[in-house]
Write a structure and sequence with these properties.
The chain has 177 residues and is of the alpha/beta class. The protein is built from three helices and nine strands. Helix 1 crosses helix 2. It binds inosinic acid and magnesium ion. The site of inosinic acid has 16 residues, from strand 5, helix 3 and strand 8.
Length: 177
C-alpha cells in the first residue's frame, strides 16, 4: 500500500456489498415511481456510476456541481456552479452524495430542489460522519457511518487527488500537517 494512506478503511469488496445493499433498498422504495437521481459532483461520481447500474428501474440522471465557502460573518455558504438541466417539477428526487459532514451542502441543495417544486427529495449518501453535523439533515439511505477522520478514494479527494483509488483509505496526517 502507498505510504500516504494510513489504513484501508473500506475495501473494494466491502464497498461492493454496501452499494448492492443500498441499491436493493432504493429499488424496493422507488418501484413504479418516475424518479430523478441527482449526483453532487465531483465526489459522488464513482459511487453513483456503480449504484445506478445496480438499480433495475427506469429513472433519469442529472448532476449538480456545488461547493461551500465561508461567507460574511463566517457563515457557510453554498455556491452552485452547475445546476440540474432536467425539469424536476412534480418528480421524486433522490440526491446522491459521497459523504455528509456538517450537512450544510445537503441542507442547501435539498431546499434548492424543493424550490423547483420536486414532489419529494430523499438523500442517499455513501458515508455519514455524524460527529461533524451542524445542519438538520437526515439521509434516508446511508452506506456506512464513519468516525471523524479524513477519508479518501472511491470519488473522495484531498486537494483533488485520490479520487481514483478503488478502495477508501484514511489519509496519513503527514499529508496535511
Ligand atoms: P458538508 O457540507 O460539511 O456536509 O460537506 C460535505 C462535503 O465535504 C463532502 O461532499 C466532501 O466533498 C467533503 N468532505 C467531508 N468529509 C470528507 C472526508 O473525510 N474526505 C473527503 N471529503 C470530505
Ligand atoms: Mg462533495
Amino acid at each position: 500500500m502507498r505510504d500516504d494512506i494510513k489504513t484501508v478503511f473500506v475495501s473494494e469488496i466491502e464497498i461492493e456489498n454496501i452499494v448492492n445493499s443500498l441499491a436493493k433498498q432504493i429499488e424496493k422504495d422507488y418501484n413504479c415511481k418516475e424518479f430523478v437521481m441527482i449526483g453532487l459532483l465531483k465526489g459522488s461520481m464513482v459511487f453513483m456510476a456503480d449504484l445506478m447500474r445496480k438499480i433495475h428501474l427506469d429513472f433519469s440522471v442529472d448532476f449538480i456541481v456545488a461547493s461551500s465557502y465561508i461567507g460574511a460573518q463566517s457563515s457557510k455558504k453554498v455556491n452552485i456552479s452547475k445546476d440540474v438541466s432536467l425539469d424536476v417539477g412534480g418528480k421524486d428526487v433522490l440526491i446522491v452524495e459521497d459523504i455528509i459532514d456538517t450537512g450544510n451542502t445537503l441542507e442547501f441543495i435539498t431546499k434548492h430542489i424543493l424550490d423547483k417544486n420536486a414532489r419529494s427529495v430523499k438523500v442517499c449518501t455513501l458515508f455519514d460522519k455524524p460527529a461533524g453535523r451542524t445542519a438538520n439533515v437526515k439521509p434516508e439511505y446511508i452506506g456506512k457511518t464513519v468516525p471523524n477522520e479524513f477519508i479518501v478514494g472511491y470519488g473522495l479527494d484531498y486537494n483533488e487527488i485520490y479520487r481514483n483509488l478503488p478502495y477508501v483509505g484514511i489519509l496519513d496526517p503527514s499529508v496535511y500537517s
